[in-house]
Amino acid sequence: MGYDPNINVGDRVEIVRDENSSRTGVVAEIDHADPDVPYRIVDGHGDLVAWAREVRKVDDRGALKVGDRVVITGDLFKSLVGKRGKLAEIDERDTEYPYLVRTDGSTSGGVWVEAVRREDDVEQPAPAPEPPANPFAAHVEEAKRLLTGTEHCGADVIRLAEILAGRW
């Protein structure tokens, strides 16, 4: 995108569309001669967060703070993406995993992740379907899904469901 004339030195911004997406900081410098990554973003200590290609202004509410309810949008193995919790700490000097999140239902001290968004800034996902009342019914549904497109009968579905349930 390049230089945005509405962004000024001193603006609080969020980095968008690059490897540092979702990171926030303050614009310390705008290099008008570099249309590819013109923004130098720093943390509250003046340390470099990143050079950014594209940023957007955030209001005071846009700055994440300890205690905010957040949704994890990036972690090393992607296994925590979408989990919700409370932001326990922000290490602005850590360029890889600056957010410590205590996820809902966890008894651990939290997990360090690379990106989060405030919970109320994220669309709520569609509710998960109700699990079947009978636990074996879930195995039957999975067996039917696995057998889709094959020639099979009801007995085949039941047999596969029993295998999936560990009864065979």
Structure description:
Strand 7 (84-90) and strand 8 form a beta hairpin. This protein is 14% helix and 30% strand. The strands form 2 sheets. Strands 4-3-2-1-5 form a 5-stranded antiparallel sheet, with no helix packed on it. The protein folds into 3 domains: 12-62; 69-121; 135-164, no CATH class. Helix 1 (135-147) crosses helix 2 (154-164). It is an alpha+beta fold and 168 residues long.
- Please estimate the helix content: 10-25%
Main sheet, how many strands, which sense, barrel?
Answer: 5 strands, antiparallel
Quote the beta fraction.
Answer: 25-35%
- Summing up helix and strand content along with how strands pair, one would put the structural category as alpha+beta
- Sheet with most strands: strand arrangement: 4-3-2-1-5
The low-confidence parts are none
* Number of separate strands: 10
> Distance N terminus to C terminus?
59 Å
Radius of gyration: 23 Å
* Nearest-integer average pLDDT: 82
Mass-distribution shape: elongated
Number of domains: 3
Helical region count? 2
Order of helices and strands: EEEEEEEEEEHH
Features:
168 residues, alpha+beta, five-stranded antiparallel sheet, 2 helices, 14% helix
Concise summary:
The protein has 168 residues and is of the alpha+beta class.
Q: What's the arrangement of secondary structure elements?
A:
Layout: E1 12-16, E2 24-30, E3 39-42, E4 48-52, E5 54-57, E6 69-74, E7 84-90, E8 99-103, E9 111-113, E10 115-118, H1 135-147, H2 154-164
Helix pairs in contact: 1-2
